[in-house]
Every structure is written in C-alpha cells, then in structure tokens.
Amino acid sequence: MPRMSLLSKSPHSFNKCSQNGDSRQFFDIASTLQNTDLIRRRIQSGEVKGPRIFTVGEPFWVRTPIYVKDFLQVNHVSIPEVESAAQAKERVRQQVRDGADGIKIFANSVESDGILTMPADLAKAIADEAHSAGKPVFAHVSNNQGIEVALQSGVDILDHTTPIDEPWSPAFAQRMVAAHMALTPTLTLWETVSPNASAAEIEAGMSRAAQQLQAFSQAGGQVLFGTDVGYIDRFDTSEEFKWMSRAGMSFQEILASLTTNPAQRFGYSAHSGRIAKGMDADFVVLRADPAQDTSAFSKVRYTIRGGEVIYSDK
C-alpha cells in the first residue's frame, strides 16, 4: 500500500478553473461571473458537492487578446474593453456588487501585431478602485513590461512567469517581494501552448520560467500554486509540481504554496490552511508521500470539506 499523506487546503490562486477534483477551495481568475456565481450557489445550497469558489469574474483588458476572441464569439460571451478610467472604475464597482471576490487586469495582452501593454495609470485606477472595496487585484502578464505595470499600479498577485523575456535578476525579484506581490507561476502553461516548438526550444523556455520562479522564491516571495486549466486542458498537475521542484522549491515550500500561503494571502489563516484543533475540517488525503516525490501532490485519494468527502478517486 502506498503511504497516504494529509494536506490541509486553503483558497488557491488558480487561473481560469480549479485543477481536477483535489481542491477544497480555489480562486477562479477569469470566467463569466454570472455562470460561476450560479455554480457556487448550487454548491452552497447543497444541491451538488464541490469546493468553495472565489472568483474575479470577467477580466479587464484594453483590447481582447487574440487567443480568446473565437472562444468568446462561439460562446456568445461579451467582455467589454476598457476605454477610460471612469468606465473601468464603474465596472469594478458593478462586478463587486455582482459578487466578484477580486479583480483581474491584463497588464499585457497578446495581439496579432504584438504584445499590447495596459497604460500604468489605467491599471492603477482599476487597482485603486478594487482595493477601496477590499478586493485583491490579479494581473496577467506576458513580459517584464507587464510586471512593471503591475508594480506601478499596486497589483497583489502576479499570474505567470515571463519566459519570453529576460531572466529575473535578484534585484528585480526583490522589487516584487518589496511590493508584497505574490506569484502564481503556472509553469506547465508554457509547455502546453508551444505545440510546434522543438524539444530544445521547449526546454529553453521552461528553464527560463523555472529560473524566474527560483529568483522570486529565493528573494522570499510568496508563491501560490495554480494552473491555467480552463484555457488549457491539461488537468494532471504532476508536471507543475516537478517543475516547481526543478525551480529549487523544497517539499515544504510547495506545500506552503498549496496551504498556508493562500490562507494567509486571502485572509483565512485563522481557520484554514493547516490541520489543528479548532481549524476547519478541510484537507486532502494523498496516495503517496510528497516529501519523497513532489509529484505525489497530484495523487489525490480524498478531498474533504467541512468533514465531508466531496471527492474520492474510487
């Protein structure tokens, strides 16, 4: 019998959607708010079993990224482009009224003519409005210029590394840490979105992404585990854990990215994120010991929320 391990769960910083069945809570950071709210209300009512869902709803961008245009059109989804600070602020207020738990900006968006970067003053107006409502701000970035916008605007959580750009120097990583910015690395994304690249090109890009995570982690940055499931269809998280380990993160650091780090970041550390008397009875049972192989974090046996099994791999 493989050794089983217990893993307390707290809100994750997941991109687009949760990973496959092993999270007790997750933070969705790009979806149609009305649809996501419907799903979580069905879970809250007890109609279906599921995790606790936090969401940012529709993201804010100055131009719709080229790679989502077809999806939005086919599914009849309309996400307005940001035209002014006043319009953006009102939209932030409306999304918060509609139940958004955070706000996401596209500091960069990939377009047919290159990478478009959101003006820093516009990003700051959105972030300031979200912060005035007590909501965290996430930023999608494609290159280091996008990170500069995130830094200038007061973003809380950075989504993705930037392997198409320069390595992150210790000083650059320290600037993010000094700004109290967390990072969701989503390393597997870069391998998945490069189907036509050679093995050598993929290795070079993945190594660059791992170096950036390593620089951030070594600077003392707070890492939040996440995937890009919803945009990509790779549900197996084992490769993500392997790359985090390759980036120099220890078993304990990866464990923290799944538990205590998100609990602290999102304000639930008083009752979630670890196993102790008086804490929420929320945890995961693993099939193997991640201290021996970090990919074991993906081998989920049970997910338990409030003392009730909500997922079993039987």
Strand order of the largest sheet: 4-7-8-9-10
Q: Count of DSSP helices?
A: 11
Counted beta strands = 13
- Helix/strand class: alpha/beta
Mean pLDDT: 90
Strand content: 15-25%
Architecture, according to CATH? Alpha-Beta Barrel
- The unreliable regions are 1-22
Largest sheet: 5 strands, parallel
Shape: globular
Q: Distance between termini?
A: 15 Å
Give the H and E element order.
Answer: EEHEHHEEEHEHEHEHHEHHHEEE
Q: Name the CATH superfamily assignment.
A: Metal-dependent hydrolases
User: What is the CATH domain class?
Assistant: Alpha Beta
Q: CATH topology, what is it called? A: TIM Barrel
Rg over alpha carbons? 19 Å
Question: Share of helix among residues?
Answer: 25-40%
Please explain how this structure is put together.
β5 and β6 form a beta hairpin. α3 runs parallel beside α4, α4 crosses α5 and α6 packs across α8. The strands form four sheets. A five-stranded parallel beta sheet has the order 4-7-8-9-10. A four-stranded antiparallel beta sheet has the order 1-11-12-13, with no helix packed on it. The protein has a two-stranded parallel sheet with strand order 2-3. With 314 residues, the protein is an alpha/beta fold. It has a single domain, classed as Alpha-Beta Barrel (TIM Barrel). The chain is built from eleven helices and 13 strands. It is globular, with a radius of gyration of 19 Å.
Give the structure's gist in a few sentences.
The chain is α/β, with parallel strands linked by helices and 314 residues long. Helices cover 35% and strands 16% of the residues.
